[in-house]
Amino acid sequence: MDIQDKLAALLDDPSFQKIDHRLRRFNLFEAMGAVHRELEHSNFLAFILSPARPHGLGTELLLRVLSTVLAKVPDNLRVIRALELLVSDLDGAIIHRERDNIDLLIEIKELRLCVTIENKIFPRVGGDQLARYKDIVEQRFPEYRRIFVLLTPRGAQPDEADYIALGYSELAEIIEKLQTEREEILSDELSLILRHYLEMLRRKIVEDPKLADLARRLYEKHKEAFDFVSKVRPQPKNLLDDLRKLLESNSLVNEDRRTSAILRFVPVAWTNTPQLNSCLRSEWTKTGRSLLFEIKANENNRLIIALILGPSDDFAFRKGLYDEA
Q1: Residue pLDDT, tens place only, 228-281
Q2: Which of 42, 44, 251, 325 is deepest in the core (most CB within 10 A)?
Q3: How do the domains of the chain map onto residue ranges?
Q4: In a 3-state reduction of DSSP, which class is residue 152?
């Protein structure tokens, strides 16, 4: 069988057509450009978690999310027992958005309980952000029991000890299970929206285990066809390619690191300042730089430019830079 026949066999394979259909199907969240926007994710989660909003889920999703978080804490460290949570009335729960810059703050007055959720689609958490939010909540709710959660795509472990890691894959499983169990009583509109959200998460944010397994089996079956397509595929081009050429021709900047989607650089003048080059190479940049510019190109070929302050042994100098910023 020559390569043309192998390509034809791949295209005719039902498994390939199933994957193609899943990945090409219209998705509302992708159409709105909300895939990697933390604000949009937080807004949607605040809506479906709030018992007061008109979605038909009541308190069930909120209860299941809180129960999942609570199950991650050892019994002797739990601020509230699972049974107390199960028998309580959560109808009065209030979901605050961006209160004191906190992504989601769940206030349950009946239980004297508040739950802080910091949502990170890109899992890097800046500086002492988690500690600051914890201090704010402790001051604002001194008599409440408090739970702190870091929500990331893969459930990254927080640097702050009191935070509990929650992954978007776990969240997707909770939503999917609830949708399946309540399918007969949920409105068609809500079912559709939840399906679109779950599909978006598993296509763009977390891995879909079933789809990944199907893809692996398909690759083993049609390895020659896939390898040929990979060999001849056009290389992606974005605005970073042009920026790289500009940096290479500019004697005032030094390139730090590049990938297909990230470009880092620093002014040459910074190389003579020890405090700006004091990062342990095992902690962040392999070049040891503590302060650098980073340019990212997103899926819409838009550029995002940021000045990033990384780890440094000179805490006073680092704090001074942070305070100035």
Answers
A1: 888 877 665 667 778 888 888 888 888 887 776 788 889 998 888 888 888 877
A2: 42
A3: 32-186, 239-324
A4: strand
H or E stretch at 12: helix 3-12
Parallel, antiparallel, or unpaired for β 163-167 and 253-258? unpaired
Is 0.85 topped by the overall pTM? no
What pLDDT band is residue 150 in, cutting at 50, 70 and 90?
A: very high
How large is the angle between the packed helices 188-200 and 168-181, nearest 10 degrees? Answer: 150
- CB of 106 closer than 8 Å to CB of 114: yes
Judged against a pLDDT cut of 90, whether residue 216 lies above it is answered with no
Structure tokens given for 193? 């929206």
Residues 6+ apart with CB under 8 A from 208: 202
Per the CB < 8 A criterion, the answer to whether 276 and 217 are in contact is: no
Please tell me the total number of residues recorded for the chain in this structure.
325
Asked whether the beta carbons of 179 and 187 are under 8 A apart, the reply is: no
Residue 159 in tokens: 């640097």
**Residue 88 to residue 110: CA distance in whole angstroms:** 8
Q: Which two tokens stand for residue 71?
A: 């199950």
Positive or negative: CA dihedral 36, 38, 43, 48: positive
Q: Can you point out the beta strands (E) in 101-206?
A: 102-108, 113-119, 145-152, 163-167
CA neighbor of 203 nearest in space, from 70, 23, 69: 23
Residue 94: the pLDDT is: 95
